Amino acid sequence: MAEHDDAAVDPAVDPSVDPSVDPAGLAGADVAASLFEELLRRTHLTRPFEVADVVAEEVRRALGARAVTTFWVNRERDALVPLAGGAAATRGPQDVEGTVAGRCYTSGTVIDVACAEPGWRRVFVPVLDGTDRIGAMELEVPVGEADELPHRLLLVLERYGHAVAHVLVAKRPYGDALEVAQRTRPVAVGAEMLWAALPPLTFACDGLVVSGMVEPTYDNGGDAFDYAVNREATHLAVFDAVGHGLAAAGLSTFTLGAYRHSRRAGADLVETYTAVDAAVTETFAEGAFITGVLAQLDTGTGTLRWVNAGHPPPLLLRDGRVVKELAATPATPLGMPMFGTRPAVAHEQLEPGDTVVLYTDGVVEARLPDGGMLGVAGLVDFVTREAAAHRSPPETLRRLQQVLTSPDVVRLDDDATVLLVEWRGGSERTLLPQTV
């Protein structure tokens, strides 16, 4: 592929690399086994901040690679930040837009480009936790006389990126280094609580993609989302707590816990609504309430059921356009008196390829440069344009996040959260590297 990253530096060859290694045998079964064996063996006792060092050392040892950098995507999802270790000190952050590393991240595709020195290729490898995009790797590998990356080597590097992702995610809770690496500015206490409670941003399996987004990244308090892909159904929820800041964050994270407690006890939607409402009412002072949508999707049949607790209705996207709002008789927000009313459960039969958009009002209340609001129509226009461009749910939300945080486009006056759920649309395959 005749493509170069103009921002790339030209680091010196690592002295540990043996230039006599036969490139044709780089990805042999014994070499690949040694690579993964040593990565897994060493990371049993590795501290979180040492992971990038081990990743670089093992790929250099096993494959003769050089200039190895592991990138971690920042909270804004607009830049890839080098982790300490390997050649990270010589590589600055790489913009997601306009760089090869960024294209590798957004596409989930292994990309190799020519090096200035003959016999070497610079390779960019997606770092995927399943289908959740967490970063990318950059390295240079010897290929001998070949003018492209051998397929077997490409396969090993892709699998290595997957293994690296699993190690990073597994080690993350045991220290602060990986969390802090994603931050470009201070985080408010409320946002600290929220990010500790949220699930991973993206999950996909055959026939299903779920992806979420929360803004402001560093000062969000009142919004939250949740999902759980279980045997009997996929459970989905969005919440919007009254107020802002730490008080709202306490209410939203408490609600997440109460929702999960009821869901994991096997309660149905009405029972869950009732239990969460009671928990909020008993714990918080009068006037503290939270709106939300609680939903269940039968991933076998496509039947969607939901309860609306005073929240904006979800949108249904079909064939690249929004065909309806998923209206339901609204129940009172959680934590407000129910006046003896029983929440109504609404139903919708999805068709293959449908996408459900759950969102909070902060999205549609975002201010445009002319002073008007983005509105439901603006959200619909954005989502339909992304669908027409065949964007995956996580890439659609990453791009929406960039719009909502661009001061030249909109101004957020409230927290903004979106949860996209695609059923049998096939985009889960586009989230996988080309070798899977």
TrEMBL record:
<dbReference type="InterPro" id="IPR001932">
    <property type="entry name" value="PPM-type_phosphatase-like_dom"/>
</dbReference>
<keyword id="KW-0378">Hydrolase</keyword>
<dbReference type="InterPro" id="IPR052016">
    <property type="entry name" value="Bact_Sigma-Reg"/>
</dbReference>
<dbReference type="Pfam" id="PF07228">
    <property type="entry name" value="SpoIIE"/>
</dbReference>
<protein>
    <recommendedName>
        <fullName>PPM-type phosphatase domain-containing protein</fullName>
    </recommendedName>
</protein>
<dbReference type="GO" id="GO:0016791">
    <property type="term" value="F:phosphatase activity"/>
</dbReference>
<feature type="domain" description="PPM-type phosphatase">
    <location>
        <begin position="205"/>
        <end position="423"/>
    </location>
</feature>
<dbReference type="InterPro" id="IPR036457">
    <property type="entry name" value="PPM-type-like_dom_sf"/>
</dbReference>
